[in-house]
Amino acid sequence: MATHASMPRRAARAHTERPSTLSWAMPVTLGVILGWWATSIVRGGGVLTGTQLALGLISGAVLAALCYALGRAQKRLPVEAKAIAYGTLFGGSVGFLYSLSAKTTVLAAIILGLVTGAGMLVCAFYAFYVTKD
Prior knowledge:
Layout: H1 3-6, H2 21-43, H3 50-73, H4 79-100, H5 106-131
Helix pairs in contact: 2-3, 3-4, 4-5
């Protein structure tokens, strides 16, 4: 029964190793989803134009870069800072997507971004606090 206490812990990865596939695949996937969603909101069922496609590509690339940077830096951040970063990134993304719809005001997009960001902050704080070493 006591073997779990005597088992050695997994050694930390050396910094010379390549990052895992998930460290770049998750940000790319999230960037593609956000870019596609932004393009489809702006397009509104019409014909896809170059500016709409550029909006989707740029917004997806920005989100992917921010997610990748946060994923690489999160091990060095305290629990509170990680939760704030994830809440800010999520709330900003939701607010941005909501602001693209033609039927909304900037204030409504800001409020929705703040509310969803606060929800993500609470969820991320709980998840990081429970799993911290």
